[in-house]
Amino acid sequence: MDNETNTPQSLDEETLFIVSQTFKALSDPTRIRILHLLFQGEHSVNEIAEKLSLLQTTVSHQLRFLKNLRLVKYRREGTTLFYSYDDNHVMDILQQTIDHARHL
């Protein structure tokens, strides 16, 4: 709702696309596991792969998808990339959904 006029605000195509891609990102168990781990702190690709028992190539592919949606960010230290989450809004949704699932 538009606060000034109390009328529904239409969604433009770009917003619809980003919202649908964000939900697509959150619909994949591997990406959920990666985001959940990053919510706990920054990790390198190798650390993520090791802690989640995934192949490094799988982790890299999923991180690229998440980075393109601006859900994760990275910093470089030498030749190592360290990833962390980059969107509190989406992480709040993810955490609330996890809490909901555990509450059932």
UniProtKB/TrEMBL annotation:
Keyword set includes DNA damage: no
Top-level taxon of the source organism: Bacteria
InterPro entries recorded: ArsR-like_HTH (IPR011991), HTH_ArsR_DNA-bd_dom (IPR001845), Metal_resp_trans_reg (IPR051011), WH-like_DNA-bd_sf (IPR036388), WH_DNA-bd_sf (IPR036390)
Keywords, sorted A to Z: DNA-binding, Transcription, Transcription regulation
Pfam families membership: HTH_5
Domain HTH arsR-type: 11-104
Name of the protein: ArsR/SmtB family transcription factor
Species per Swiss-Prot/TrEMBL record: Cytobacillus spartinae
